[in-house]
Each structure stands twice: as C-alpha cells, then as structure tokens.
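WARN no homologs supplied; continuing
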Amino acid sequence: MDYLIGLISFIAAFIFSLGGVGAAVILIPILVSFGIPVNIAKPVGLFYNTVSLTGASISNIKNKRLDFKVGIPIIIFSFLFAIIGAYISQFFPNRIILIIFIAFLLFSGFMFLFHKKKEKDTYRTDTPYVWLSAIGAFAGLLSGLLGIGGGGIISPLMLLLGFNPKKIAAITAFVVPFSSFSGFLTYWSMGNVDWKLLIIASATGFAGATLGTIFMQNKLNPQSVKKILAVILLLMAVKLSWKIIINFI
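OK structure emitted
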C-alpha cells in the first residue's frame, strides 16, 4: 500500500500544482478510504501540502515568477487564522462549513470557466494590501477548519481582484505551505502523526509538484491555467459533496 500511496501522492501533486493548489483535499479522502483514521489523515494532508508546494515555490523563486509583495500579506494572515481554524475545528460542526465551502468552490470553478478573458496588459499590477489580508484570513480559517490548504479560496478571489492566472498560481503555491504548516502543527499538538505515511506522501508530493509547476509555467498560457484551476475547484467540490453524502448516509 505504501507504493500505491506514493504514486497517488505524486500524481495528485503534479495535477494540482498546475493551478498552484494543494492536493490535500483529494489525498485526505483517499487515505481515509484506505482505512486510515481521519485524525491521522488530516495532519498528513496538511504536511503534504506544505512540502509539495514548497517544491513548487522553490522553482518559482529560482525563475523569478513570484511577486513577494502580493504574497506576503496573504501569508501572514492565512498562517495566523489557520491556527485559529484548526483549534476551533474540535468545537465547530463541519457539515455547515463544508456546505458553504462547496457552494463557494462551485461558484469559483464556474467563474474560472466563464470569467471574461483579459488581455495581458490589463492584468492588475498593484498591491491592494487590505483585500489581500482579508483573503489570507478567510483562506487560513477554512484551511484550519477543514484540514486542507486554502488554495481553492485564494485563487478565485485573486482572479476577482484582476490578477494574472499564472501569477495567482505562483502566489497560491507560495502561500498554501504556510497556512498548511500552521494547521499541521496545531493538529499535531492535539494528536498523533503517522510519520512513515507522512514521509512517503510528502517526498513523492514534493517531486510531483515541482515537475507540475515547471510544466505549467513553460507550457501553458494564462487561459489554460484558468481552465485547470476551474477543473481542480470543481473536483474539490465533488469530493467534498461525496463526503457529506457518505456521512449523511
């Protein structure tokens, strides 16, 4: 089973890194379906996000694709609010949060598919710190609550602000490791971590996300990245909807 988990982790990281989004939302339910308790799968998924997208960010930094000024306010607030979200998750009913999140993912996915195309020179280049901080706080809170990265929240909101999809993917890949790691630390403090499983998933995830990011930046245009982001967000919505249906049954 270790080899299978490693292969799944690699493929998921490669695909999701094309949109700069953490693959924990897919990996966690897969681990649970293999009989791994959800309280063990969540910290593994969060650390997996941290390591896999760190690899993507290293590639982006080396090739000067990352706008630090835009990413820093999102990082700070997502990191802080992920701690809050992870802590209150033990008291908060997840079903309502999941339903709201699914509705948001559906809206976001269809927005990426049908959002009016912008020419290259019309993409936003300033740094709206207040809006970026608010996005970080919202993404961090849900990241901690659900045990996933906040990429599915950050990406569509940044698109609404008018940023280039390629820039969004690079910034999201840079931000998600911070919110995921703070959530991981909080879950770790509240329970046990399966270190063998964590190492297998994270090592293969690092390789997959690094290759996926290189492929995205070199081979895809912004409109293709938008479509990939849309598919990823809609897949996330389907997976979370299935989780609610299974729990309800």
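Residues 2-248 form one domain.
OK
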